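Teaching note: in complex prediction, the entire set of molecules is handled at once rather than each chain in isolation. The prompt given to students was simply: 'Predict the structure of this complex.' The entities are:
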Amino acid sequence: MQGLGVRQEHPKLKELVLEASRALARLDADRLEELALSCQALNRDLAESNPERQRALAQEAREADGDMAVFARVLEVTRANLNVMNRLRELRAGRLEYDERQARGWTESRHGDN
Amino acid sequence: MGTISSAFSIMSQALQADQAALNVVANNVANASTPGYTEETPNWQENQPIVINGVSYGTGATESGATSIRDHVLLERLNQQQQLASASGSRLAALNTVQALFTPDSGSTSSQAGDIGSGITSFFSSFSSIEANPTNSSLRQQVLSSATTLAGDLSNAAASLNSQRSALDQDAAGVTSQVNALTSSIAALNQQIQSTSPGADAGTLEDQRQQDLSQLSKLIGINQISTENNGLSITTTSGQLLVSEGSNFQLATGMVGGVSHFFVGTLDVTSQLASGGGQLGGYLTARDEDIPSVLNSLDQLAYSISTQVNTLNNAGTDMAGDNGNAGNIFSAPAQVAGAALSISVVMTDPNHIAAAGLGQGTGDNSNATAMASLAKQLIVNGQSPSNYYSKFVTTLGSTVSGVETENTAQTASVTQLQTQNDSLSAVNLNNEASSLTTLERTYQAASQVFAMLNTIMASVLNMGEQTTVS
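The expected output is the structure of the full assembly:
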């Protein structure tokens, strides 16, 4: 756990966004799932927050705007990388099927003893 | 061959093959920490069956060498992202240096780019000061003093930008020898790999070539084209051939218009390399686009201020009673280009400041008022000098921020792909399926976090506004 290692009652939105980008870059699914839970909790607390807290959060949201743009771009390149990896998996799966068929045909036609 | 001896032969070959496979595994383990080493898998070759009395018997399998597990598609994607990350990284470094130049430096007494904003304000304010007392010599001297400060800020900024451009030019030219060494090495490796393939796997040689490609991708933008027998051709992203199997084409530099240009043979590939990526792409973009754009903005500012102020000073009456002939305060720029670098204060006698209107007595202040009001007039590309400068700084900051975002995203992409590649081709116990599952799980979790953060931020901004209004 990095960045938010020190327990805070209300981690700043900016820190949440930055941590999410960092976790995504290093493919830390566990950390992102933790952050998703934190966001759920924060979302629940929003309705009950007082005006002062709401104003503070609005300010935090404005400060985190640039970092959200970064997070969006990292998410975008991750989507592109995932597409590449999925395509590779399909290619390999296709090649394996072909190789198995080829091997079976070859065995049946040339190996009558086994 | 008798049946028993055949069986022994089959078993014996199986044992030998197992031993060879174990050697491959041992090689993987021994090279686990070797940079660029790709895991090898043993190749099993079925032996020709033996026919005895019309019945064929298999003779087992022989280990016939090793094949490296590498995925050219993934590696190409990795190299491509590396090119983008390197380009944005070197461009960002250059832009950060430029931006630092325009950071206000309140503590310094020397003329600096960061003081241009306050310099503009002080200069036009000094005319406001002599409005109240047009004949006061110390206030007149203050006009020349603030003009000198502003001119110094602008010319020092231009000089610093020119120095940065020269440094980038040297950095860019320095990349050439590294590129040539790598393309030469790749061509030599191509020859060796092609002479080895397809009969045997050229694992180590391919690892070396892959490392060279990775290094080359950090330097320039390239495309890879696979050729016969595992050969490789490399072009710039615009298609200029750099390596054709066993031959490479050297990149050369020559000075054109005071900066280094890059040639393959007699063809100028500078613009191709600038848009292609890699460190060189970043250097060239900063050298040929970013810094010239900043310089152009400063030139425009210096040109407009100096010509407008000079025109007005020559449209009034100075302390000596010169009507419409008081002379220039700033050096008169011949053109916009270079105006910032060359701007200086040419007036030495403050009595030549034409504070009075044309034909008016020396105690008049109407021309000083007109010069002070230039601060709010739209004299620089349809904007006031201060607004123009302010927007210029904002635009520069926005450019830096955009490149920073791209660099962060591309660096993250390289990290992710490297992780995927490591799990596939390096000596690692993780298999491909689990690494892909991790990637998918990470993406899904990140998408969820992003959607929730978006909702939260929209909600709090809305609530914050409602709270503020009420």
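Point out the following to students. Chain A touches chain B through 61 residues (CB under 8 Å). Residues 109-114 of chain A have pLDDT under 50 and may be disordered.
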